[in-house]
Amino acid sequence: MGRYEVKQIKNLLDFNLNRFLEKSKEEGFRFVERLVNDYKDGSNTFNHFGEGLFGVFNEEGVLVAIGGLNNDPFSKEQYIGRLRRFYVIKEYRRTGIGSLLVTKIIDEAKRYYKILVLHTDSEQADKFYTSIGFIKTDFYPNSSHYMELKS
């Protein structure tokens, strides 16, 4: 694996996301498009307390993976965070980049939350998240997986 760097993204609109949008749409994923649209209209800019948007950049400084951390909008509990809009460009999968990014987001979540939830309906994503330690359950609203966070 080459040299990759995880960084917090302060302004998503500073990046050319055409490749991300194109690649995700080819796979039938619409959540990257929702990420961009929500960011543009201000409905989710990952800028509230306990939130953040993170990217993995390759040696050329190109964004190859992205994922966000939000307060869980489906829970009334303040101690639940949500992993959102997590996407790794297909040719970069199975290289450790996804694990690198999700580990960064989990570490960030530990600073603010006791539980981290997410939703996926993809079998491949289910295997990825459970391999990292997420538990598959529908216990939390609009979630397919959760993880108890320990500092």
TrEMBL record:
Gene Ontology MF, one: acyltransferase activity, transferring groups other than amino-acyl groups
Pfam families documented for this protein: Acetyltransf_1
UniProt key word Secreted: no
Residues of the N-acetyltransferase domain: 1-151
Sorted UniProt keywords: Acyltransferase, Transferase
InterPro entries: Acyl_CoA_acyltransferase, GNAT_dom, YpeA/RimI_acetyltransf
Presence of the UniProt keyword NADP in the record: no
Gene3D superfamilies assigned: 3.40.630.30
Protein name, per record: GNAT family N-acetyltransferase
Protein species of origin: Robertmurraya kyonggiensis
